[in-house]
Amino acid sequence: MPPFPAVIPQVATPPRVARRHPFLVLLGERIREERARKGMSRKALALDADISERHLANLERGVGNASVLVLLGVAGALRCQITDLLVGAPSG
């Protein structure tokens, strides 16, 4: 008898529920608003910030967590200060 079964049974995993922390939601709104104000597409911002478009979309939806370096890249691509993304209320 082999040490491991020839077929490993698949166990269904529950779908991952994205948790949205209020701070991340607000941060995402600020990034999205600033991007829209600058007339940038998500693709252009992701390219300029050197992050994937998927990661940027997650940030804007408030489900992606960003390192300080990612936020610096996003702020640089938006030509704003990182504090503009972290402080104050969105204009909407």
Automatic annotation (TrEMBL):
Domain of life the protein comes from: Bacteria
Molecular functions (GO terms): DNA binding
Pfam family, one: HTH_3
HTH cro/C1-type domain mapped to chain residues: 31-85
Name recorded for this polypeptide: Regulatory protein of benzoate catabolism
Organism name: Piscinibacter sakaiensis
